[in-house]
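Methods: example folding runs. The two proteins below were folded one after another, and each record is reproduced exactly as written to the output file, sequence line first and structure-token line second.
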Amino acid sequence: MEKSLYSREFLLSRPLLQAIDNQEDQIPVLLIDEIDRADEEFESFLLELLSDFQITIPEIGTIASQEPPIVVITSKMGDQSFEKERNSIDMVESLSGLT
């Protein structure tokens, strides 16, 4: 019998898929670090996961999480704003020391 290369047997499970395909009685926890650096393909993949708690793989089908995952997302976008504010505060403090 011929086996399809596009089956679960040959699927390489990456961390996102491993987390939602967890068969244990544990709630999956996902840490998505620096989301602002993600490409569009990953963003659409992540949107499906976050909205439906499932991932669709065209050749295999839909893999759904037994429990909604706990998701922690980090970004460096706010770092630039924080740095600008800190520099502004430092400038005001140094100017007020001159008067």
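Second run, written to the same file directly after the first:
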Amino acid sequence: MLTAIDRYLARLIALPLLGTLVIAAMLLVLDKMLSLFDFVAAEGGPVSVVWRMLANMLPEYLSLGIPAEAQKAAAVLGRNYPGTKWYERSYKLMQQHPVKS
């Protein structure tokens, strides 16, 4: 159960986090999008295909970045707040779901 402070912090963090994820995803996909548009335009296909292809690639890009960031956050918690419940939870999660390099 989340306390009032936890909910408050989650609300403060959620919007900037999602905004950053959206901007980063758009920047990662921009190069591929331009290549796909060139290819589709050269072949004479519909532009809607490019949007579907990008939508299918986005989860792959997010799966590359999010686990590494989770590992960094767990390391910061371990360094700055050893022994807290947050560090213990993050340590347990990192042990259950190790980051593949």
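Comment on the second run: The helical segments are 4-43, 48-80, 85-96.
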